[in-house]
Amino acid sequence: GYLARAEGWAARALSPAAGAKTFLAAAAVTEQPLLGARLQYEALRSGAAPSALALELEQRAACCDARLTAAYAGHAHALAGRDGAALLAVAEQFAASGAAAYAMEAAADAARLFVAEGRMDSARRAAARARELHAPGQGTDLPQIDGLDAAATELTPREAQIAALAARGRTNQQIADELGL
Fold it and tell me: Cα–Cα distance between 19 and 16 in angstroms, integer?
């Protein structure tokens, strides 16, 4: 498995298409459901068409009780269906499994989708979740989301004030009364 992944990532260094092709070729010859699913997921991450992989990943998930395998399939299905809410749900599945980098990527995919749909509030929330999931120094960069600058993902001073009051257990009415809203 390690060798197949290394060969796939070496091919991806040449081009994403070469990486996807190498990952898919390795997945086709393995009989191990978890390894095959991981290789197919790496192909997805390298740019393979989600619609082509969604059903195959779902079939592998049915043969394997690993939570990550189901999350791989969920990510492919959500991308294929252009479903931002499902991408955020998959991000949480990955996070619960300890796969923070995959979780970050799923949340960033959701943000990109929301931007494309013109749903900027949802895009900002998804981008903020991706930023929360990013682990600096762990080999990943914080993904850039075209159409959404870094400043847009930060809370405004008023939003931060409201969030702080909510974190202290204030109700909506108490917050409104205190802030004169």
Answer: 5
Is the confidence at residue 66, as pLDDT, over 70?
yes
| For helices 50-62 and 33-45, angle between their N-to-C axes, nearest 10 degrees | 160
| Tokens standing for residue 15 | 């081009």
- Long-range contacts, 49-53 (Cβ 8 Å, 24+): 49/80, 50/75, 50/76, 50/77, 50/79, 50/80, 51/80
pTM: 0.77
> How many residues appear in the chain?
181
Distance between CA atoms of residues 178 and 158, nearest Å: 13
pLDDT, tens digit (0-9, with 9 covering 90-100), for 128-166 = 999 999 887 767 777 778 776 554 455 667 877 888 888
- Scanning the structure block, which residue is given the tokens 């390298």? 46
Question: CA–CA separation, 176 vs 144, rounded Å?
Answer: 35
Lowest mean pLDDT among 26-30, 58-62, 140-144: 140-144
Mean pLDDT estimate for the chain: 89
- Contact assessment for residue 97 and residue 67, using Cβ atoms and an 8 Å cutoff: yes
**CB contact at 8 A, 31 and 64:** no
Q: For residues 22 and 64, give the distance between their C-alpha atoms in angstroms, rounded to a whole number.
A: 23
Task: Write out the H or E segment, with its range, that includes residue 79.
Answer: helix 67-80
